[in-house]
Amino acid sequence: MRIHHVAGGLMMALALAGCQRTAPMDSVNTQPNITPLQGQPVGSVSSSQLPDPTKDTAQFPAQPTTDTAMATGTGNAAAAASALDVKKESMVGNWRVANGPSSCDMFLTLTNLGGGSRGGTRGCAGELTAMGSWEVAGKQVVLKDREGNPIARLYKTADTRFDGSTNSGQPVSLSR
Who contacts 168 (Cβ-Cβ below 8 Å, separation ≥6)? Predict the structure, then answer.
């Protein structure tokens, strides 16, 4: 028994010796060695008066035309009239997206994000790459960018299918 006690005490002393600090921390420099940047010569600076933007509009590009029906959410009246009722809870999950000639994945959650719920896409092209949220407005599903601006509107056309278009008029459909 005596040998066991001595061996145990020796093991304990070795374990505690491993925890001992071997170097004082006072000699360690924790400040980064950063050298200041040298000033660089600057060329001459000139100034002039900018033209009045309200008088000479030739320097600006033409105002883009938008589909006002899409922007106001009243687009595709036929689809809206025949659309099926949408429940937000039934939208949650993974969707396969057909966007023009390409396809990708969309994920919809019920996590609040601004004025809608969090959502996102993977492998999409065009406007849908910026999708960050979505919401149900009546019989319409509105996909929004990360700033909360609508980028597409869809209507339920079957139990597991939604059809609509992006703001640029590109057809979009969701299916499971």
Answer: 126, 127
DSSP state of 23: S
pLDDT grade for 73, boundaries at 50, 70 and 90: very low
Half-sphere exposure of residue 158, counting CA atoms within 13 Å on the CB side? 7
The pTM of the whole model exceeds 0.70: no
Alpha helix ranges (H) inside 19-82: 68-72, 77-82
Q: Give the Cα separation of 162 and 106 in Å (integer).
A: 13
∠ CA 89-138-115, nearest 5°, is 70
- The encoded tokens of residue 2 equal 């005596």
Alpha-carbon distance of 121 to 171, in angstroms, equals 16
pLDDT digits (tens, 9 = 90+) for 98-133: 987 889 999 999 988 777 899 999 998 888 999 999
Angle at the Cα of 135 from the Cα atoms of 131 and 66, rounded to 5 degrees: 60
